[in-house]
Amino acid sequence: MDFLSFREEVTKYIFAEDMLQKADIILIPGNAYPQNAERAAALYRQGYAPYILPSGKYSTLVGHFAGVCEKADRYNKEYKTEWEFLKDVLVQNGVDESAILKEDQATFTWENAKNSRIVTDQNKLVIQKAILCCRNVHARRSLMYYQKSFPEAKIFVSPSVIGNITKENWYTTKDGIDAVNAELSRILYQFSLLV
Predict the structure, then answer these.
(1) DSSP state of 187
(2) pLDDT (tens digit, 9 = 90+) per residue, 98-121?
(3) What is the tens place of the pLDDT at every residue in 64-78?
(4) What angle do CA 157, 161, 166 make, to 5 degrees?
(5) Is the pTM of this model over 0.85?
(6) Fewer CB within 10 A of the end CB, N or C, for the chain?
(7) Buried b (16+ CB within 10 A) or exposed e, 7-39
(8) Beta strands 25-28 and 129-132: pairing type?
(9) Domain residue spans in the chain?
(10) How far is residue 40's CA from residue 93's CA, in Å, rounded to a whole number?
């Protein structure tokens, strides 16, 4: 395999993305960026799914919701959890509150996925197809966790670009290479914890 082919394989693997189909739910792992929830709201308004489930309390590394990372001028309330923040983004972008489910205890991605499954089960939702709105560079790892939690469902990834790292340019900067390297390492290590 030559260098270009290797780079293309890494890109295709890390930056998971699918052609979307209508689904039973849109899932959003916790974060402090509005882009994933904005994308989910757009998909909801287009009729891709009747429910959205944002998930998240806050990072265990910080111990509280550390604040909105982008567009804080628009999303400027006092949020206690990632879920509160993501819900506000969804509502401000045209999602009916009745369509938003609640998971506000997860503190890392694996908990986002596991707890989301608990919420859908408690609501007696049968999830055969789901759309996962997540950060582009975090797409493969998010997908791994959500597939583990929803093994019977087909999950379609609809990623958002957050920051400047894209599938087209990640290999051109140290930050991009470091981000992809970190994801590869986390995927390999965390996969071993799931089996």
Answers:
(1) H
(2) 999 999 999 999 999 999 999 999
(3) 999 999 999 999 999
(4) 100
(5) yes
(6) C
(7) eeebeeebbbeeebeebbbbbbbbbbbbbbbbb
(8) parallel
(9) 16-165
(10) 9
